[in-house]
Amino acid sequence: MAFPSDLSYLHTPANKPYNYSTVADAARENAQLRPNQEILIFRELDGSRSSLTNASLYQQAEQLARYLVKQGIKKGETVALLGPNTLEMAIATLGIIKAGGVVLTIVLNMKKEDVMAQLHIVNAKFILVDCGKNDSFIHSFKAILDHCGALTADPSSEHDIKVLSLRETDSYNVPVINQYMLSQNIAEAELPHIYPEDNVIILSTSGSTGIPKMVCFSNFDCANIEQRLSGNYQRIIFNDRLFFWALGSIIKYIMRSETRVFLETSVTLNSPNIDFTWHILKEERCSDALLPAPEIRKLLELSKFVADDGIRLKHIITSGQIIDKYCTGALGQLCEKFVVLYGATECRGICLKTISDCNELLQAGDVGKPVAGVEIRVVDNQDNPIKRGLTGKIQVRSTLAMTGYVSNPEKTKEVFTEEQWYRTFDIGKVSLDGNLIIQGREIEVVNRDSKRIYPSMLETIFKDMEAIKEVCVVPVPDKKLYEEVCVCFVPFGELTPEDVKQFCRQNYFKAKALSGLDEIPSYFLQFETLSKLGTGKLDRKAIRQHATTRLRLTMETQN
To answer: Which CATH architecture has domain 23-217?
Structure first.
């Protein structure tokens, strides 16, 4: 019998049976039942458009799968994918899966040494590479391909890894998987039988705490991604997250038979003009959009332009950053419902909050309640649950959580308790009404004398300042206090550090309540741009280093 508890514990029971199927089964069913549905739509900056239907995706992926089997790929072996978001990469993903292989998605901006280390760990024998239209990504990939022998006269002759190109290229001498090669005696290649427990994809973590770690997912994991959005309608979702991110993987769109619209990677990586993004949303008649908080803020700046066109999305979904009330201003102006997701590569979806009332006040960091089948607790330093309303460390337990990092048992042991609670390394609390409130990352906490200050919560104060484009609060060394607070910001126009400091003074009590700050920060620095990771998140380590250098401080000042 359930009884009320004042401890920081949340649980949403699973509300439906698990789906015991595979990605290949779902793709085949889509091709049979909805052959002409566009499953993937690719848009380029020049306005051009190309797409794959369920039937064309499945047919081309099956051709590629038979070719890969003929090349010697065996069930359970890892095949690496290196390239931007393209239709060719999508076909390759499903093709590797149908061949029984496990897809390793390589993060585009990873160092050569880290990529080669990952390839060695998973014992990859093949890399399928797409250097993009007009070889636009060849320079980014050169070090990796050269190490594999792809840029030599005799490719792969002295290397264990064979490189195959997904499109014609003159930049290096490797076999190209073209229609001629696919048509040569591959019909008799027998594809393996795939089971729900078989692994299909390895995704990397964001790397925000160091070198990205690898997490492997099975067909069963992919088949049971929680359906989070309400409403019974055919979804057309704009999502330009890169394929190698958990939220960017094409697999969930295959499993749900939902249409995905995405941009070429060169546009995504270079922060596209928000007018162009909205134009694509309208032209493709998108029902929903997955957008990062900075893009939502930019869209809200176009509110009059957007309001006049009469287009409203059913949902705007966002994830990866603490959301403030400014972003929820999208309700009514841009969308009917605003959805905040909280998750981790290791556990997939954790929490969900849907806001449909524009008058609802959103507490900064509120990510709602657990998705079905997930447990959450907030604990102290000894892993003991604490009372609701108190701040502590967030832990998650889920049937669909990873079993461990690939070939990294030490790190796996570090992130799981004996009772299989996953340590998220996020700081937060359970509110009295049963919602999870995210307050920041453990490693980002500023230790100012005896106070622990939460940068993410302090940043929400400055995001209320309309003249601030981006903001990042970091610790810098201090001789007396160990660490001091530095506010790094990018302005929209005319804005000085003194202006930001004055804004902080005016909002001092709010800042104190949210962040743990007992007085206003000592340093305010203006930047032209803030460094970012490949995932689009702020590179706090680099920003901290830049701030420390500009202030002429050194780590020795802490001694």
So the answer is: 3-Layer(aba) Sandwich (3.40)
Positive or negative, the CA dihedral 357, 363, 364, 367 is negative
Q: Domain 223-441, what fold?
A: Rossmann fold (3.40.50)
| Mean pLDDT, residues 11-35 | 94
Q: How far apart are CA 451 and CA 518, in angstroms?
A: 8
Token match 């790397």: residue?
207
Confidence check: pLDDT of 156 > 50: no
Q: What is the dihedral of CA 110, 116, 122, 127, to 10 degrees?
A: 90
- DSSP readout, 513-559? HHH--SS--SEEEE-S---B-TTSSB-HHHHHHHHHHHTT--GGGG-
Cα distances from 168 to residues 89, 165, 212, in angstroms, run 14, 7, 31
First to last CA, the chain: 55
Enter the tokens of residue 250: 């094409």
142-181 b/e (C-beta count within 10 Å ≥ 16 → b): bebbebbbbbbeebbeeeebbbbbbbebebbebeebeeeb
Task: List, by residue range, all CATH 3.30.300.30 domains of the chain.
Answer: 445-558
Chain centroid to Cα 87, Å, comes to 19
Which residues in the chain are classed under CATH 3.40.50.12780?
23-217, 223-441
- How large is the C-alpha radius of gyration of the chain? 24
Distance separating alpha carbons of residues 482 and 25, to the nearest angstrom: 57
Q: What is this structure's pTM? A: 0.88
Q: How many CB atoms sit inside 10 A of residue 464's CB?
A: 14
Q: Are 405 and 23 in contact (CB under 8 A)?
A: no
Q: Which residues pair with 26 in a beta bridge?
A: none
Q: How confident is the model at residue 1 (pLDDT cuts 50, 70, 90)?
A: very low
CA distance 21 to 192: 15
**The residue count for the chain:** 559
Q: What is the C-alpha separation between 498 and 490, in angstroms, rounded?
A: 14
Whole-angstrom Cα distance, residue 510 to residue 271? 31
Residue 201's nearest CA partner among 240, 148, 244, 162 is: 244
Whether the predicted pLDDT of 484 surpasses 70: yes
Is-contact 202 216, C-beta < 8 A?
yes
Q: Amino acid identity of 124?
A: A
Cα torsion at 98, 102, 106, 111 (round to 10°)?
Answer: -150
Q: What are phi and psi of 198, to 5 degrees?
A: -70, 140
Q: How far apart are CA 341 and CA 320, in angstroms?
A: 8
> How many CA atoms within 13 Å lie on the side-chain side of 372?
11
The tens digit of pLDDT for each residue in 421-474 reads 999 999 999 999 999 999 888 888 888 887 888 888 888 888 778 788 889 999
Q: What CATH number should be reported for the domain whose range is 445-558? A: 3.30.300.30
Encoded tokens for 484: 């001091």
